[in-house]
Specification:
Blueprint lengths: L2 E4 L4 H10 L6 E5 L2 H9 L3 E4 L5 H8 L4 E5 L1 H4 L10 H15 L3 E5 L11 E5 L6 H10 L7 E2 L4
Parallel strand pairs: 1-2, 1-4, 2-3, 4-5, 5-6, 6-7
Helix pairs in contact: 1-6, 3-5
């Protein structure tokens, strides 16, 4: 089942991709940085580029994905965001986007409380967790997990 990583051009996103690459699954990425997009395409990822605050674009990229990894750093770093003024607005847009796209499992990578995400399975992992990539892949591979569970250790 396809997975999308929104914010794959962040430190946390790149570490997740390095771990996911060792598995045999379709992985899509949503990034802002064109040079990173080119590099990720060369590695075989399906890449969507654009403004992370454009939830309609995120929705289109997530269409038919089973799971979404949403890296909050991309909502709050120095990249340009034209459709939202705050990280919270960006993250709420992502929650709307993945819900509308029919995503079944969302893994938030954030230190803050993620917005309400009305999909069947939602988990949170801290971006500072040394086991972040392993935890994300494990969460994506399990048959199901409790909604709203915090899988952080830090």
């Amino acid at each position: 089942m396809p997975m999308i990583v929104v914010g794959a051009d962040t430190v946390a996103g790149e570490s997740i991709l390095a771990e996911v690459r060792q598995t045999e699954r379709e992985v899509r990425v949503f990034v802002t940085d064109e040079s990173k997009a080119h590099h990720l395409r060369s590695l075989g990822y399906k890449v969507a580029t654009g403004d992370v605050s454009d939830d309609s674009h995120v929705e289109g990229a997530a269409l038919h994905c089973f799971s979404a990894v949403l890296v909050a750093e991309a909502a709050d770093d120095d990249r340009e965001r034209s459709f939202a003024d705050t990280a919270e607005q960006v993250m709420r847009g992502w929650a709307r986007a993945v819900t509308s796209a029919g995503v079944q499992r969302v893994i938030w990578v954030t230190e803050r409380e993620p917005p309400e995400t009305p999909v069947p399975e939602v988990a949170t992992v801290s971006p500072g967790d040394p086991a972040l990539p392993t935890k994300v892949v494990a969460l994506d591979e399990v048959s199901s997990f409790p909604r709203g569970e915090d899988y952080s250790t830090s």
